[in-house]
């Protein structure tokens, strides 16, 4: 008996939409990363792009536990004295709250060429609207997968 290795003809990609409202960021990112890689499929092959196309809506309503809202991210402009920083809360409340989800998912994928291709199959929207209705995405309810996925306030 031979080990199964998927070929491009065996790959079947779906579109899924995930609502991030009230879901804890790390748990959401791990589920999205698993879907992007295709590890939820029984035919998973590590060197092939087997994952689904994932749409995340309501990224601005994602929950953070503990002191993660106060964590600072630093970057340098390249000019003398050009160190800048922002907290995760400032990013969520700013102009691009979807970047928090994108970076969390990106950091859960391997650091290679295939992961960069898989990240291109992720679309994150701050609000409830997305322009991907033509792809007929199926809804994945992350909240009901595990009671720990939502924050009890």
Description:
With 153 residues, this protein is α/β, with parallel strands linked by helices. It has a domain at 14-66 and 98-143: Ribosomal Protein L13p, Chain: A (Alpha-Beta Complex), CATH 3.90.1180. 23% of the residues lie in helices and 17% in strands. The chain is built from four helices and six strands, in the order βαβββαααββ. The protein has helices spanning 25-37, 88-93, 98-106, 113-119; strands at residues 15-19, 53-57, 72-76, 83-87, 122-124, 138-140. The strands form two sheets. The protein has a four-stranded parallel β-sheet, with helices on one face. It has a two-stranded antiparallel ribbon with strand order 3-4. Helix 1 (25-37) crosses helix 3 (98-106). The longest helix has 13 residues, at 25-37. The radius of gyration is 17 Å and the shape is globular. The termini are far apart. The model has no long low-confidence stretch (mean pLDDT 94).
Span between N and C termini?
52 Å
Overall geometry comes to globular
- Helical residues, percent: 10-25%
Q: Please tally the helical runs, counting DSSP H or I stretches of 4 or more residues.
A: 4
Number of strands: 6
Low-confidence stretches: none
Q: What is the CATH topology classification name of the domain at 14-66 and 98-143? A: Ribosomal Protein L13p, Chain: A
The SSE string, one letter per element, is: EHEEEHHHEE
At the fourth level of CATH, the homologous superfamily of the domain at 14-66 and 98-143 is Ribosomal protein L13
What order do the strands of the largest sheet run in, or round the barrel if closed?
A: 5-2-1-6
CATH architectural category of the domain at 14-66 and 98-143: Alpha-Beta Complex
Rg measurement, Å = 17 Å
